[in-house]
Design a protein that fits this description.
The protein is built from 14 helices and 20 strands. By secondary structure, the chain is α/β, with parallel strands linked by helices. It folds into three domains: about 170 residues, FAD/NAD(P)-binding domain (3-Layer(bba) Sandwich); about 110 residues, FAD/NAD(P)-binding domain; about 110 residues, FAD/NAD-linked reductase, C-terminal dimerisation domain (Enolase-like, domain 1), CATH 3.30.390.30. The protein starts with 6 loop residues before the first helix and ends in a 7-residue tail after the last helix. The structure holds flavin-adenine dinucleotide (FAD).
Amino acid sequence: MGGAASASFIQRQLPAGHLPSTELPLEDVIRWMRSRRLALPALGVAAALTLAACTAGSQAKTATSPQASVRPGPNRPAGSLMLDAAQAGWRLPTPLQRAVALADGGSQDVEANSIVIATGSDIISLPGVEIDEKQIVSSTGALSLDKVPEKLLIVGAGVIGLELGSVWHRLGAAVTVVEFLDRILPGMDGEVAKQFQRILEKQGFAFKLGAKVTGVETAGKKLVAQIEPAAGGKAETLEADVVLVAIGRVPYTDGLGLKEAGVALDNRGRVQIDAHFSTSVKGISAIGDVVAGPMLAHKAEDEGVAVAEILAGQAGHVNYDVIPGVVYTTPEVSAVGKTEEELKQAGVAYTSGKFPFTANGRSKVNQTTEGFVKVLADAKTDRVLGVHIVGREAGEMIHEAAVLMEFGGSAEDLARTCHAHPTRSEAIKEAALAVGKRAIHM
Ligand SMILES: Cc1cc2nc3c(=O)[nH]c(=O)nc-3n(C[C@H](O)[C@H](O)[C@H](O)COP(=O)(O)OP(=O)(O)OC[C@H]3O[C@@H](n4cnc5c(N)ncnc54)[C@H](O)[C@@H]3O)c2cc1C
């Protein structure tokens, strides 16, 4: 750790909103938190948050071994600290004392009461398809293409593939999506996915479901993809200007030396944690994409808050049954809670109420009548177990369902809550009424 630093030093060094860097002693951290009017109970976690603080951009300047180099990682800000055990070496005696490589050269020894691993995720690459981020791209390259491709081939009909496909399609690209499974949006409600596929097809999307891309070759300025039925059979080729590989993401744990530290991973390479975000090594916690659960920013954020609360001696908690998910396309898709498929698989008796936007006044006036709201409720207790929306503004509308579910509310509660007219949200009330087969405007 570096030497003592004064509060004025901290104020000089830290951009507003950033946490103090590892070089600051705790009393200065406390002064800094007070100056920012941060709650004192959070003080206990200051040391634990230092690594997160470093990746958030605090500029530590205590390089001591210039020979240590740094491997490139996803989205690392220049000048930030990186935990890179493979480079810096495990020369320190306990897992809570770590050599940290600096992005601009050198390394720094860091000691903390707690360490939180929050290194995120990385793309899954497709064997036989080499990503150059220009013509054969991941989501990173797809966000910065220098012109609209005439033909865009997307490998994978998951959230990221469809979102980016929707963007480029609206800009003029002819989009074909190849998906291994026989459906789009795996993990989301099947009926919603089917309806959404129909909407996208109406817009001009082409889907090849139950098919896999086995290779991509360059042919002059064009690309040629080899496509085979997932179950085997006759292969075909498809020409494209750009191929986007969006077949999923994996936890990013490279270079952390987790094995040497004794931090256990599960069978999918995710850092294993208990209900309190603790890994198999005392003092090391993990959150976000690197642990189980949906790879979503708001899930990672809530876990970050919860782990900070826990380390401060409070009761941090994330309700994994109520994490909304949104597909940011036009129109949008949103969901919270269980899908019908999940309820069937779990053997839960449920009732379902559906209401189409074609029968919703606001949607009719605005000519945005595509899609529907579906409410799934426990057949015995009427407790809402899942809500699924496809249609304009679905991502905004889902949160009233999330609040209801946080309070363990029923379809009847939702149905009896007065909704302003004319709004699209009335469709949620109507879908809740439809659970009891008494929708008003149908
Ligand atoms: C194209 C795309 C679109 C997305 N859109 C959405 C969306 O609309 N809504 C949503 O909820 N989610 C979205 N996500 C998912 C979301 O980005 C992630 O779920 C979220 O960022 C996970 O947060 P995290 O803190 O776990 O990891 P990250 O946000 O990835 O942060 C991890 C950080 O750790 C750093 N790091 C890695 N290794 C080291 C090391 N050894 N030392 C130091 N630092 C290291 C990385 O550089 C990175 O800055 C999207 C993802 C992608 C790829």
